From TrEMBL:
<dbReference type="InterPro" id="IPR017941">
    <property type="entry name" value="Rieske_2Fe-2S"/>
</dbReference>
<dbReference type="GO" id="GO:0051537">
    <property type="term" value="F:2 iron, 2 sulfur cluster binding"/>
</dbReference>
<dbReference type="InterPro" id="IPR050584">
    <property type="entry name" value="Cholesterol_7-desaturase"/>
</dbReference>
<protein>
    <recommendedName>
        <fullName>Rieske domain-containing protein</fullName>
    </recommendedName>
</protein>
<dbReference type="GO" id="GO:0004497">
    <property type="term" value="F:monooxygenase activity"/>
</dbReference>
<keyword id="KW-0411">Iron-sulfur</keyword>
<dbReference type="InterPro" id="IPR036922">
    <property type="entry name" value="Rieske_2Fe-2S_sf"/>
</dbReference>
<dbReference type="InterPro" id="IPR044043">
    <property type="entry name" value="VanA_C_cat"/>
</dbReference>
<keyword id="KW-0479">Metal-binding</keyword>
<dbReference type="GO" id="GO:0016705">
    <property type="term" value="F:oxidoreductase activity, acting on paired donors, with incorporation or reduction of molecular oxygen"/>
</dbReference>
<dbReference type="GO" id="GO:0046872">
    <property type="term" value="F:metal ion binding"/>
</dbReference>
<dbReference type="Pfam" id="PF19112">
    <property type="entry name" value="VanA_C"/>
</dbReference>
<keyword id="KW-0560">Oxidoreductase</keyword>
<keyword id="KW-0408">Iron</keyword>
<dbReference type="Pfam" id="PF00355">
    <property type="entry name" value="Rieske"/>
</dbReference>
<feature type="domain" description="Rieske">
    <location>
        <begin position="9"/>
        <end position="112"/>
    </location>
</feature>
<keyword id="KW-0001">2Fe-2S</keyword>
Length: 327
């Protein structure tokens, strides 16, 4: 399970998008069902009933906050425990539970662990925990592998070309035919920092990679804050859920959010066609593609990915639990 993305914390959806009605969300090829158990708690199970392996997302929330399967009415709590089997009141319930996924509710996002025994916790910027900031969330799905999307988000040299009429225009204004782009990449506890600068110009932005699948871009010097955070969430095979979260500490009047938010979604959409055209679909090992010094940030991510994740997986819990017909 979770082939190529095992034992990682990743957000799945904004908490504001999760209601009482069960919904399916695929992470690294594995369907999950998510729903709101009560006001303070979200449930996350593998999206399959242990009885006949149908989708629990087709079911409904029970009065106690659990899930009832739409096929035969089996009921489960948010820990996966089977609470009721219609027409079989004397059957044992303990061995007939659904599978719970470790999850956290942090920074306005639902996080899941792509495994069953986490030994770490999610890493996220403090800005996601600051309720005083103006916030915007948007998500959509692209036909691309998450690694291609992640590299694109860490790639500064494409700004004056893909984003020539948006965020890249500031780079274009300084760019000369003989310009040289410099980048300093520094390891951090969460991933790495990238500081780019053009020729002798001072750095105009800072970029951070939060392992495994997030980019954070600060575009305005302090004390103002305009932070763009993008999560590249592996979904179905060769599909990626792009989750955009922006935070800022200015322009709080009611008219401002529309302009800022529309602009940031436009920037995201400018990347889509390029990323979806990648061939091979997944980032390759070194040597297949030609690289140059300004690829340092993306190559650092690529090296990490090819070392840590391509062959990662976790065992399906059904393989550890013998099936039973009676008792």
């Amino acid at each position: 399970m979770f082939d190529g993305f095992a034992r990682q914390w990743t957000p799945v959806l904004p908490l504001a998008r999760i209601g009482n009605r069960p919904q399916r969300a695929v992470v690294a090829g594995e369907p999950l069902v998510v729903w709101r158990v009560d006001r303070g708690r979200v449930g996350v199970l593998l999206d399959r009933c242990p009885h006949r392996s149908v989708s629990l997302a087709l079911g409904s929330r029970t009065p106690s906050g659990g899930l009832a399967c739409s096929f035969h009415g089996w009921e489960f709590d948010d820990a996966g425990a089977c609470e009721k089997i219609p027409f079989n009141p004397d059957r044992g319930l303990a061995r007939r539970g659904a599978t719970k996924l470790p999850h956290r509710e942090l920074g306005g996002l639902l996080w899941v662990f792509t495994g069953f025994d986490p030994d770490t916790e999610p890493e996220l910027p403090d800005t996601l925990l600051d309720d005083s900031l103006v916030r915007f969330e948007h998500h959509e799905t692209w036909d691309a592998h998450w690694t291609r999307a992640m590299e694109n988000m860490l790639d500064y040299p494409h700004l004056p070309y893909v984003h020539r009429n948006t965020i890249g225009r500031f780079v274009r204004a300084k760019q000369r035919p003989d310009s040289v782009l410099h980048q300093e990449v520094r390891d951090t506890d969460f991933g790495y920092d990238v500081t780019p600068w053009l020729d002798d110009n001072p750095p105009g932005a800072t970029l951070k990679w939060y392992a495994p699948n997030s980019m954070v871009l600060d575009t305005i010097p302090a004390p103002r804050l305009m932070r763009i955070q993008i999560y590249c969430i592996p979904a179905e095979p060769n599909r990626v859920r792009m989750l955009l979260v922006t935070t800022r500490n200015f322009a709080r009047n009611p008219a401002a959010p529309f302009a800022f938010d529309r602009f940031n979604v436009k920037v995201l959409h400018q990347d889509r066609a390029v990323v979806e055209s990648s061939d091979p679909v997944i980032v390759p090992e070194r040597g297949l593609e030609t690289s140059v010094p300004t690829d340092k940030a993306t190559l650092t991510f690529r090296t990490w990915f090819n070392r840590e994740l391509p062959h990662s997986s976790v065992a399906d819990p059904r393989e550890r639990t013998p099936s039973t017909l009676e008792g």
